[in-house]
Amino acid sequence: MDKNTIKAAELLKKAKFATAFTGAGISVESGIPPFRGNDGLWSKYDPVVLDINYFHTNTKDAWRVIKKLFYDFFGKANPNPAHTTLAEMEKMGILKALITQNIDNLHQKAGSKEVYEYHGTAQTMVCTKCGAKYHSPDVDLSILPPLCKKCNGVLKPDFIFFGEGIPPEAAQKSSHAAERSDVFLVIGTTGEVMPASMLPQIAKQNSAKIIEINVENSNYTNHITDIFLQGKAGEILPELLNAINQV
Ligand code: APR
Fold first, then answer.
1. Of all protein residues, whose CA lies closest to atom 34 belonging to ligand 1?
2. Cβ(125)–Cβ(136) under 8 Å?
3. Does the active-site annotation cover 119?
4. Domain at 1-32+79-119+167-247: CATH code
5. Catalytic residue among 119, 135, 176, 223
6. pTM of the shown model
């Protein structure tokens, strides 16, 4: 076992408040493509489809791509060993909070309880007119855009579009967790998108040790990362848990 993994395991074992911060990379081994990088979604689709103004002005076109990207394979992805290991770390009392930028619900499916969905979720939809909420699997997407059964308003996925604010409760709990963490795991994220990308910086400014897991360098690696465990999250995290059980 390499010395970095052992060092990370020792930090986590004695941590008073460890938080995990995850991005799209943690779900890649579940078959969900990331946004950036060679086979990233943004290399095939224009991110404008997730711009809130575009959604309101080109609703049908936006919904056509949103359906393809987020709903055609909806519910078919399953947690991978990275998700299940974080859930295990929470059960062991090692992980106190999990902040995710992902909208795929895989952390909850894996059993994690204290999950803050910083960018909302694809699990529900909301009426843009009356605010009525729908469970996404119950919404018929054969006709786009989907309309509210109550007021005929256009439904929007409950995840955050570019130009929208962060859900207040997730924002507050995430900042609080970042401020009080003494160990902060950064897993599978480029650190490209504000304000989510500020959370590891907040943790660092509050003297947290940053342990990063990624297949390649991110915006954090040569700046705030204390221990960089290079590799796939689905392989690194089980190894890390194994080391925690041995130190
Ligand atoms: N294990 C660990 N990391 C991985 C793996 C893997 N198996 N596969 C890819 N990665 C890494 C990539 O190297 C990259 O750093 O995951 C990261 C994915 O980066 P992005 O696609 O930019 O995802 P993310 O950082 O979560 O994007 C943030 O951007 O488009 C918005 O709202 C969207 O929440 C998203 C936000």
1. 101
2. yes
3. yes
4. 3.40.50.1220
5. 119
6. 0.97
